[in-house]
Task: structure prediction
Amino acid sequence: MARMAVTVTAAILAVILSAVSSPMTVVADNSTPPPYVNHTVGGAAGWIFNVSSNISAVNFSDWAKSQSFFLGDYLIFKTGTALPVIQTYNVTTYARCNADDDNGNETYVYDGSASDASPAVIPVPLTVEGDNYYFSGAGDDRFQCSHGMRFHIVVQHGRGLPPSLSQPPPPPYTEPPSPPVTPAPPGAGTGQEESFYNGGGRRGVGVWVKFSGFFFGVLLLMV
Result:
């Protein structure tokens, strides 16, 4: 019985020590959110479609499953031919590989054709927590998307958005409206009119007086 009691006591002590140390380890692991990360889509292969074999360079869905994504991270699309990237939060748009019918604010198109780099590099920030969908907008009849150029990720909170991404962009500049023109009330004269009534002359009156004098002078010569 004594040996059994010692064994039980040792077992209880082991459980207590485990209970004390285990929470400390969990807190230490979860206290620091992961740092922001730039994810190169497809790894070394990049965001490339092989036109010879009509298939994507890698299986992007498998690549996405191997990563962890958080708010504030960036997806880096490296494309050899500036393939457009479509980002959507609409699963129907993603399933159809078509953003033409999406009239809301859930779909965005990133086009690398304006990039001077070769290959083009398209950075896409992760700003919405939850399901994010991506697919290629290149090719007729959504061919590239239907042949592997698409993937789905789930964005976690992590550190949250950094200030550079959490602030909304400033509103576009608009020309201020011109002040309304208020017509003068009836009977209210201008400064020129007041000058005329007080003995001054209106513009052009002096010319008329000079012309009248010249006209009468000619008449007198004729007589």
About this structure: Residues 1-28, 192-223 have pLDDT under 50 and may be disordered. The radius of gyration is 39 Å. Residues 32 and 81 are 39 Å apart (CA to CA).
